[in-house]
Amino acid sequence: MFGVLAAVLGVLPLLAAGGLVFSAVKNHRIQTGNDAFIPAAWHNLRTDEIFPDLLRDPAAGAGQSTGWLRQGIAEQSGCKEALVERLAEVAVAQGCTAVLRATYVDAGGEAAATIALCVLGSNDQALAIERSGFSVVADRPGPMVVPVAVPKTAAAGWRTKLGYGGGTDSPTLFGPYLAAITVGPTDPDRRYGDLPAGWTATEEQELRIYQTLAMDLLGAYSRSFDRAVNGR
């Protein structure tokens, strides 16, 4: 099934009529010195710098997969609206004030992901959430972000009940940010444990693939955002 995820089978239309399906986050620029740029980066960076059109791991070599294609960027949201309840409660307690989200689809069109950039009070508060067991490398942390469907794209049917993998990560060394993710299939009718002849994976093994995808994609996003913040 997921050998297809790394192959380009024909890119689906990303954005209708040459523009985003959702209103882009407004970039109200805050004039600051260099020392204060990192906490203001979510204001000052362009939305396509925060959420690139094509998301690939900037640290990986030429042999990496084709990558994930951005389908749309949602308007800025509150923490309780954008995050699953169990993460939202912890994030608000750690100073969460805003969440930016974008939805991506793998190049084969079979998996969707919504990535969130959460603005917290400090980097220490982001790390505190990591220590709470929500980390993407924790034991099956599960989906963390409320999925954002994007009409007229491969992610048109993407919704909460399809989210199987997820987690959180602190994307910068000093910034007040937490990155979070939910990953699952784009096909709302996909059934697990009912595989074609010759397949030996169980339902649990198959669903575990989405957690692996979540780990890989969130790691790629964190490194991409860190490079954007630090101008590399």
Question: Which structural traits does this protein have?
Answer:
disordered N terminus; six-stranded antiparallel beta sheet; 232 residues; Secreted protein; 6 helices; 28% helix; single chain; alpha+beta
What does this structure look like?
- The protein is of the alpha+beta class.
- It is built from 6 helices and 6 strands.
- Strands 1-2-3-4-6-5 form a 6-stranded antiparallel beta sheet.
Count of helical stretches: 6
Helix content class = 25-40%
Radius of gyration: 17 Å
Mean pLDDT level: 80
How do the helices and strands follow one another from N- to C-terminus? HHEEHHEEHEEH
By DSSP, the count of extended strands is: 6
Portion in beta strands: 15-25%
Q: Give the N-to-C terminal Cα separation.
A: 36 Å
Strand order of the largest sheet: 1-2-3-4-6-5
The poorly predicted ranges are 1-34, 193-200
- How would the global form be characterised? globular
Short note summarizing the structure:
The chain has 232 residues and is α+β, with helices and mostly antiparallel strands.
Strand and helix layout:
Blueprint: H1 37-44, H2 47-50, E1 54-55, E2 68-73, H3 79-82, H4 85-93, E3 98-106, E4 111-119, H5 123-134, E5 165-169, E6 177-185, H6 203-230
Antiparallel strand pairs: 1-2, 2-3, 3-4, 4-6, 5-6
